[in-house]
Amino acid sequence: MANIFTAHRADLEALAADDRRRMLAPRTGLDFASNDYLGLAGSYALNEAVAQGLQRGLPAGSGGSRLLRGNHDEHEALEAHAARHYGSEAALYFPTGFAANAAIFSTLPQRGDLIVHDELIHASAHDGMKLGRAGHVEARHNDAQAFDDIIKRWRAGGGGGTPWIAAESLYSMDGDRAPLADLAAVADRHDGVLVIDEAHATGVYGPAGQGLAHDLTGRDNLITLHTCGKALGCEGALVCAPAIVRDFIVNRGRPFIFSTAPSPLMAWLVRQALEIVANEPERQGRLHGLIRRAETRLAALGLPASGSQIIPVVIGDNARTMRIAAALQADGFDIRGIRPPTVPHGTARLRIAITLNVGEREIDAMTESLSAAMAAA
């Protein structure tokens, strides 16, 4: 019995030797690590919404899957609100963004179809593709022509199904944006479907926080995913799409069918968060001001800007990355080192997230600490 987990132990030891073994760490220090971009997660506004929901008698648990007794009026109300907010025909609420991506890519593309995805797309999309029946090919990051060329070669080789083009609007580890208009043109040219993961753009960009794909709304070949656990400060994810997509996932999407429904209380909170973001555009304005401040201070250190609230500082070496992260944490700044396989080998980095949980003074102090830590490491 003592040797049952030998392979697991060896794998962990190999990760440790390469400075890639992960450990859970408590949240301490100033927030430069979270995805709580608008500072809503611990806000008075959402705490008040919790109290209001409890006063209305909303249950904390759903009691079952949506297709059994787990479906609640609050799920339906959120989905109707989200469809209006994001300009889609329908919406479907999932307990996590991971489950939503897994459902999209394992359920919708059919045998004979082809998924062409950006090489840096979320891990959850990869796992969904592995569970699905369609072929899948990666395209060079943010290169719309590469997507087009792959589909052309597939068609020339006899591919007769539907091409599915998958990308994130704002990439979680690089902070750069996808060429959405160009990808939409590729989808149109090849009678394809465009799937845009708006996880890190939802709430932060677009009118009323609608995301970076808001200019594409109303298209019948567009699916967008909006996570609720980042800028919205809650939990879950919303898939916004034509009504037939919602209906098909409800009938065929195993990650949806066989999951306990999200908390009705959380569905209420997400709806309130959407209202807060829409009615308080100054939150976006303050965040973008802080982003500009951080970019200015980092530019003085010779570090490039990403153009978003996600600022990667690529170090390269795993061990040096973690030494710098540890020094920043010791100075009171919660900045984490990101290592392979989350990012490509040789690109270990600090992922600095700018949120409304800090101000200009904290950003200035953080960049001073970063300069000293990089020099010492």
- Which strand order do you get reading across the main beta sheet? 2-8-7-6-5-3-4
Task: State the end-to-end CA separation.
Answer: 43 Å
| Order of helical and strand elements | HEHHHEHEHEHEHEEEHHHHEHEEEH
Compute the number of helices: 14
Strand content: 15-25%
Structural class: alpha/beta
Mean pLDDT: 96
**CA radius of gyration:** 21 Å
Low-confidence stretches: none
**Number of E-state strands:** 12
Estimate the global geometry from the Cα principal axes: globular
The largest β sheet comes out as: 7 strands, mixed
Helix share bin: 40-55%
Describe the structure.
By secondary structure, the chain is α/β, with parallel strands linked by helices. The protein is 44% helix and 15% strand. It contains 14 helices and twelve strands. It has helices at residues 6-17, 44-55, 66-70, 73-86, 97-107, 123-131, 144-156, 180-189, 243-252, 254-257, 264-279, 282-299, 318-330, 360-376; strands at residues 30-31, 90-94, 114-118, 135-139, 163-168, 193-197, 222-227, 237-241, 310-316, 333-334, 336-338, 348-353. Strands 2-8-7-6-5-3-4 form a seven-stranded mixed β-sheet, with helices on both faces. Helix 4 (73-86) runs parallel beside helix 11, helix 12 packs parallel to helix 14 (360-376) and helix 13 (318-330) crosses helix 14. The protein is globular. The chain starts with 5 loop residues before the first helix and ends with a helix. The mean pLDDT is 96.
Summarize the structure.
By secondary structure, the chain is α/β, with parallel strands linked by helices.
